[in-house]
């Protein structure tokens, strides 16, 4: 009897790509056969009253939320529906107003990348283990040390990235300095500007060199958690490829 083993990756295989450095199926199978394991942060999403879902890669509001919502109407097209819906939404160039509050540790944005035996993730793992061994004392102190900032604007896209989101189509991902186990999100804010700038963003994402953080209409914040509140007509969230219709969320 044939036993089928499914390796979850999503339409872009970004989780496998970020963990293994490749989307190769044989590589993933070998990791399973060898019994290897690797820690990965998960992000929980809430509205005002309840828990909504978890995500492992990215949750995006605006452009990518609209793409995944409208692509459901064209499932008969297969994976090509994302290209079709993506093109339509790029041309439409809709902007959404929102208020974002980021809770963050008082440290500078790092430009270190997450590789095998990552020192940043290892240090965080040791810190979390130490905190759990001290009856929550260190954890409470950490929460009280978080700073807070609020930003309001009109955005083409708002993305909370838990990993770099690199994949074959985007070798560096939308958040190349994001780590898989440091307890932080990278909040990538794409301000609503022009169609030309949207195309510049897409062209930068597909390049093998360079990142998007030096584009003048891009704003990046690193934080432990964030709140988003929609102003005026809302969009939807794209949480790991699934539609989340509640616009006002708290992610941590």
UniProtKB/TrEMBL annotation:
Coiled coil residues, start to end: none
Protein name: Ceramide kinase C-terminal domain-containing protein
Ceramide kinase C-terminal domain ranges (all copies): 61-235
Recorded GO CC terms: membrane
GO MF annotations in UniProt: ceramide kinase activity
Superkingdom of this protein's organism: Eukaryota
A GO BP entry: ceramide metabolic process
Organism: Oryctes borbonicus
